[in-house]
């Protein structure tokens, strides 16, 4: 039994506008499963859920983002310095704005999407040469080793590296984006606008998976979601995530 990360959920006041931004940013397409939800997915006959692709779901909420930095963000991959510069320029033309999260003088560029969700456009790195447009889903945390233990057990992804400062996981198939946990100061103070959604494999029991996650240290989360087919949880450091119903 294990779960697979299938999408990054982004909350927005205007799901359609934010969805269009991310579709243009990634070179993907958009669709909608219903009012208030915009799905951002690769083109070319893509069928969700893909065994390894991590898509984006933009969901409407009534509250705007606070000024607090999200503790989950996306890193975008580039193939050359020219590509990085062109991508940054294109994203700014689409409505992205420069963001200062205390990064100082670094080779990557920190931006925010039209509703203030921070993300990074990385300089070319060999490790991300085959990830697709999303290099990594990055999570700020206090204890990368503890996060590696939880998420390594929660999902079927492979642990590639773990130190006191960072942990790195990726699909066992060796494709798609990485999931990275970075040691950062501070503690979580507000709900994130960005979180991961996990999905059971066909034939696996969702309720049993949720019970297994609780045994690993996950906690139930009540966001006022009511009777829905997914289950909202937090990991041991309070990062929200959802276990979706089977597709």
UniProtKB/TrEMBL annotation:
Record domain Glyoxalase-like: where: 8-122, 136-244
Identification of the protein by name = VOC family protein
Q: Which SUPFAM superfamilies match?
A: Glyoxalase/Bleomycin resistance protein/Dihydroxybiphenyl dioxygenase
User: Gene3D superfamilies, from UniProt?
Assistant: 2,3-Dihydroxybiphenyl 1,2-Dioxygenase, domain 1
**InterPro entries documented for this protein:** Glyas_Bleomycin-R_OHBP_Dase, Glyoxalase_6
Annotated organism of origin: Streptomyces mirabilis
